[in-house]
Each structure stands twice: as structure tokens, then as C-alpha cells.
Amino acid sequence: MNKLLKLNIIGVILFLTSCSSSMSPIKVHNTLPTLTKSKYISSSEMEQSNCKVLTKNRTYTAPIGLFAKDDLKNAARGIDEWVTLDGGNAYVLRNYKWVNVGEETTQLHVEFDTLLCE
């Protein structure tokens, strides 16, 4: 393998690993609700909603995706599964964070409440 090809491969690998590290808070809060089947309720809407909290402080560690949006898709799938298992139809995102699981890899952890809304 020639030297130029090796450098290109290394460049692509570095680019791909740097893309998956995280997202801004506004991007997470704008994107995650579009990826879940369950209804997203913001913390501020919770006070005015007709929702009953089924499970508080649920945590889910999403499988690692190639990009940050893939991490969000995996988290959305987990949120939907927990909402269904809890007998609900909505959730409130309480917190999230990307945690380093290696030198170049991060994993998304989400904290949420599952709800039953009318």
C-alpha cells in the first residue's frame, strides 16, 4: 500500500471519529423529538399538560453510532421501547451526555421520565 493511500485512509478514519463526539444542546432538543414515536414533552410544558408520570429518572445508554445523529437515533429507539414497556405514550428528556468510552469514542447516555398523556 503506498504512502498517499495510507494517509488518506487515516484522514477518513480521523474525520469519522471526530464527527460522532457530540451535538449542541439546541440541536439535540430539536432533533431527538423528530426521531421518537413517543410524544416529546418539554419540562416547561409538563406543568400545563394532562400527563401522569409513570417512571421518573429512567436512564438509557444508547448503542454507539458512527455519527452523533446515529447516537440520537439509537437513543430514540431506546426511549420508545421504555415508554412502551412502562405503558406510556410520552417522555420528558431530563438530561443527556456523551461519555468517553475510549480515546476516540463516545457513547450517549439519556435520562428521561416516561409519561401517560391524554
Q: Could you explain the architecture of this structure?
A:
There is one protein chain. Helices cover 42% and strands 31% of the residues. With 118 residues, it is an alpha+beta fold. A hairpin with a 5-residue loop joins strand 3 (90-100) and strand 4 (106-117). Helix 2 (25-35) packs across helix 4. It is elongated. The model is unreliable at 11-20 (pLDDT under 50).
Keywords:
118 residues, Translation Initiation Factor IF3, 42% helix, Lipoprotein, signal
Task: Describe the secondary structure blueprint for this structure.
Layout: H1 3-19, H2 25-35, E1 39-40, H3 43-46, E2 51-61, H4 68-85, E3 90-100, E4 106-117
Parallel strand pairs: 1-3
Antiparallel strand pairs: 2-4, 3-4
Organism: Flavobacterium artemisiae
Signal peptide: 1-23
Keywords: Signal
